[in-house]
Amino acid sequence: MTQLDDLDRAIIRLLKRNARLTISELSEQLNKPESTIHFRIKKLIEKGVIDRYTILLGEEMIPKKTAIVVIQAETPIIEDFLERYVNHLMRTLSMMPNVLMVAKSGKDTVIAIVGGENEEKLDEFINENIKTLPTLKNVYVYPIDKFGKGKELVNFLTEV
Amino acid sequence: MTQLDDLDRAIIRLLKRNARLTISELSEQLNKPESTIHFRIKKLIEKGVIDRYTILLGEEMIPKKTAIVVIQAETPIIEDFLERYVNHLMRTLSMMPNVLMVAKSGKDTVIAIVGGENEEKLDEFINENIKTLPTLKNVYVYPIDKFGKGKELVNFLTEV
User: Fold this and answer.
1) B105 - beta bridge partners?
2) N or C: which end of chain B has fewer CB within 10 A?
3) Are A104 and B144 in contact (CB under 8 A)?
């Protein structure tokens, strides 16, 4: 694990908020010479602390309503098929553009973050496209009413 | 909702992968004049389709193991207190650096994405810092074994 000092952390925090800040703007805000800032960013990228630069989509591009869906697969008669069921579920969900995240937990559970234009369309999508998938035992839907932290994951995960 | 055409979408997809691409590199990859690319990006930012530029942290900076935790608050004797319980839970969780996301679902449920250096430390954190919170009825822990989509949300949400 790379050790970061206060200056590294300050640079990372500023770039997280706005990665278009120039070396000279960072230098001014952090009260350090431009050469120092330049060298630190170079090192942070070389060491893989900063992996890459990306963009975040704005509010009007992202789903207005999201839900976390916990899906439990049915245990098949031939138990070896469970892994296939789950892998198939994950692939199917991952292909849906409304589905922002798909993760596997344990042997039989798949968790997804799903988005929709509004509550009604989100429900409709879940009812018609997720709950109807074969080999499901249970589907628990947790509509998100408010984020306390990490709200921007929706902006980050939305595709165009 | 802003209508995007194929060129807008292509620009957004390339910038999502690498927001440091220059106008001239985008122009070359998309086989369009630099002036067109420049104008489109300007418009996408003006219209709020692109909200901002940010950085993603690399693998070595992020928690190796994550879990989704579904927390149900106890219904208090005085029912009006439930909202306070839940808000307090959300605030407490949001302050923990290991907690990457916190969201409220319905009246009594809080969902969090939690990270740890490894499985053991993650379990320890959940047992010692989440399960011990007062006013909880149930805590369901779903350790994430594999992402099918949206894996980078961990890189995006990790703080330094």
Assistant:
1) B109
2) N
3) yes
Q: What is the ipTM score, two decimals?
A: 0.94
Q: How many CB atoms lie within 10 A of CB B74?
A: 14
Residue B102 lies in a domain: yes
Same domain flag for A75 and A153: yes
User: Kindly report the CA angle at B33 between B29 and B36, in degrees rounded to 5?
Assistant: 105
| Nearest-by-Cβ selection for B70 from A12, A60, A142 | A142
Q: Is residue A52 part of a domain?
A: no
> What is the rounded (10 degree) CA torsion for B28, B33, B39, B44?
-40
Please tell me whether residues A67 and A11 are part of one structural domain: no
Residues in chain B within 8 Å Cβ distance of A49: 57-58, 60-61
Q: Any bridge partners for residue A70, and if so which?
A: A111, A140
The token pair that represents A106 in the structure block: 């344990």
- Chain B residues with CB-CB distance to A48 below 8 A: 58-61
